[in-house]
Amino acid sequence: MLEIKSKKFYMDSKPFDIYSGAMHYFRTVPEYWEDRLTKLKAAGFNTVETYVCWNLHEKKPGEFDFSGILDIEKYLEIAQKVGLYAIVRPGPYICAEWDFGGLPAWLLKDKNMQIRCMYPDYLKCVERFYKELLPRLVPHLESHGGNIIAMQVENEYGSYGNDKDYLRYVEKLTRDCGIDCLLFTSDENTNNMISGGSLPDIYKVLNFGSRSRTAFNVLKGFENDGPNMCGEFWCGWFDHWRDKHHTRNSLEIVNEIKGFIDNGASFNIYMFHGGTNFGFTAGANHNQGHGYEPTVTSYDYCAMLTEWGDYTPAYHAVRKLLCEKQGIEPPELPESPKLQSIGKVELTETASLFENLDNIGEKHHVPVPEEMEYFGQNFGLIYYETTLKGNYNASPMYVKNVHDFAEVYFDGEKKTSIDRTLYSVEDKTTLKDVIFKKKKGESSPFLMPALSGERKIGVLVDTMGRVNYGVNMLDRKGISDIYLGIQRLMNYDVWTLPLDNLDKLKYSSSVKKDEPVFLKGSFKTDSKADCFIHLDGFNRGCVYINGFNLGRFWKVGPQKSLYIPGTLLKDENEIIVFNIGGYSKPTVSITDKHNLG
């Protein structure tokens, strides 16, 4: 069992250093878990670290899923089989550039919700989740014959709050659920964050990406009986849409890790294998001065292994260092992943979103717009429609709190688009206080032409990730209001569109190129090798292979292709591309080359 004595780690009474790599089970298909974990072990690491994604395990309150890509117990068993210890970080908040930081979207149905504090209704939900999750992990504790040697209390809490009663609550709940391993908190290496996010008697680790030889100096002002450990050594960084793709020199990474080893510090490389934000799981940032910045589908992170599990120069350099320092004879490496090119695929069938609202959506009626969480929807799109009747002069129209892209329609014809990533909207209580802050251009209300009779007004909202870090995390999706001048428009039909039932689509040949559309095609392959789909000529949307949502695409980049794990493929394969904003031709290409920009 892992213990701390005289500011050192001991495992079964022998000195022990933690050389860990982060790999999240929910970002890699289960068929590849053993391959990636074996490569972690072969690089000289002795431990794997993973977060736990509450939002996928409990998609609806009280309904739990630990199957398939969410089978954390199987993941831990495979890690133990290949000879790795495990560190588990159950949150309940995980950040991780993951939608809402791993918190379930249904928490936001409560308009008064307060997260990560002693708000009673939040705590009830945390307790229900922990009492379902943690007993499943008890048999996998090292003290019970498993491989879990440590578990985290909350996550980087000092970057959010300072409620010590809440931290104590999470600690006690963890212990009450049978967890007897070492507990720790993790925060960035600043006085403020450690002060807010730690407890005096709980072991503290630090998160940072440079200055490994001096970063621990900040702990001198805090009680910490344990050895120095970096809970997240950021070997790279994540990408936002419209941003550049981040890379980092492998020599720089090796030098930082050498600093840990030379000073007897333990570490966890974040990420060893980043994987993919499949489906709609990618999160977002929203910081002062930057506005709303959603994260791309790839979680490449400049990790030791690529998104598809191939070796990088950093992998080989770190492997050489770790094996030499430990006196380990480097084992033979597993083969690199096999890749394939399939070529061009014609998308021969089309389905209009608007003609399929009742097929794939659920209709609701509300007096005023409500965000999607109000209806119990976690991900996807939401469509609002109201009919304006009477004699109206030409007037300015405002759609308030667009989260995140809105397409506005008058009588079925597109009027305008609103893009939250370009403008940060500050919500006030009266019309004159609605301020559109300039970010990359100038935004203003749009004009509704004069009306005598009636006009159908529709707003389709496409959502990106919920904010996963900082002060703007209560990121409800949809819109809050439509105003015509100072008049608030009322009485809406609303269709929730999670896009998880595309087998109910009805296809037609009369779809316009510029309307939201599903395009379907097929291709054959007798190979299970990985590949990448390129969407040149398309605007923004998502892709399904045999019903599996690969994730979002957007022509702004930096990511210009989506990863297809070969395990998803069959002899005959169905592909569906959902696109908003027009496309040039109904053709995609599937190749052996990834394009991250």
Q: What does this protein look like?
A:
The structure is a single chain. The protein has 597 residues and is α+β, with helices and mostly antiparallel strands. Helix content is 16%, strand content 31%. The protein is built from 9 helices and 33 strands. The strands form 7 sheets. Strands 4-5-6-7-8-9-10-11 form an 8-stranded parallel β-barrel, surrounded by 4 helices. Strands 30-29-32-27-14-33-28-31 form an 8-stranded antiparallel beta sheet, with no helix packed on it. Strand 20 (424-426) and strand 21 form a beta hairpin. The two termini are 45 Å apart. Mean pLDDT is 95; it is low at 425-443.
- pLDDT average, as an integer? 95
Helix content: 10-25%
| Strand line-up in the sheet with most strands | 4-5-6-7-8-9-10-11
> How many helical stretches?
9
Estimate the strand proportion. 25-35%
Largest sheet: 8 strands, parallel, barrel
Structural class: alpha+beta
Number of strands: 33
Global outline: globular
CA radius of gyration: 25 Å
| Low confidence ranges | 425-443
Ends apart, CA distance between termini: 45 Å
Write a brief caption for the model.
The chain has 597 residues and is of the alpha+beta class. The protein has nine helices and 33 strands.
Mind sketching the topology for me?
Layout: E1 2-5, E2 8-11, E3 14-15, E4 19-23, H1 33-42, E5 47-51, H2 54-57, H3 72-81, E6 85-89, H4 120-137, E7 148-152, H5 164-176, E8 182-188, H6 191-197, E9 203-208, E10 229-234, H7 250-262, E11 266-273, E12 284-287, E13 291-294, H8 313-326, E14 343-352, H9 357-360, E15 362-366, E16 381-392, E17 395-400, E18 405-410, E19 413-419, E20 424-426, E21 435-437, E22 446-448, E23 451-462, E24 481-484, E25 487-488, E26 492-497, E27 517-524, E28 531-534, E29 540-545, E30 548-554, E31 561-564, E32 572-580, E33 587-591
Parallel strand pairs: 4-5, 4-11, 5-6, 6-7, 7-8, 8-9, 9-10, 10-11
Antiparallel strand pairs: 1-2, 2-3, 12-13, 14-27, 14-33, 15-26, 16-23, 16-26, 17-22, 17-24, 18-19, 18-23, 20-21, 24-25, 27-32, 28-31, 28-33, 29-30, 29-32
